[in-house]
Amino acid sequence: MTTTYTATVAIIDPDGNVLLTAAQATDTLAGLIEWGQMTRDDIETPTEPLTVEKVYDFLTQAFSLHKIETLTIEPAPEGTPSTLDDLENFAIRRQEGYEPTQEEFEEKWWASELYFRHPCGDVATFRL
Length: 128
Prior knowledge:
The protein is of the alpha+beta class. It has helices at 29-37, 52-62, 83-95, 102-117, and strands at 5-12, 19-27, 69-75. Helix content is 38%, strand content 19%.
């Protein structure tokens, strides 16, 4: 089975007390590189073999992280699908007539927001 990782970019709230999730993706290390490449194409892509450290350095550069932002990369639970696979499966099920609960709909909406937003924008819109 392929190992997936969850990369989370967090930003310190304006009061400096709480880390707010600004962007998040779950994928293989190669998939996390592709996620970072959506922001910039002017930095060098890490070479194989990929390691968490190489991906961490790449994402830090890709997102131009500042001192008030943090990045963590942790192994996802076994069997966790990539963010894009999860969102695609949800969309397909919806097209086939599946009616999600409000909680599930909001969960997928946030997953999409955190995946495609990347760390930019108004801190007030970030999710705790």
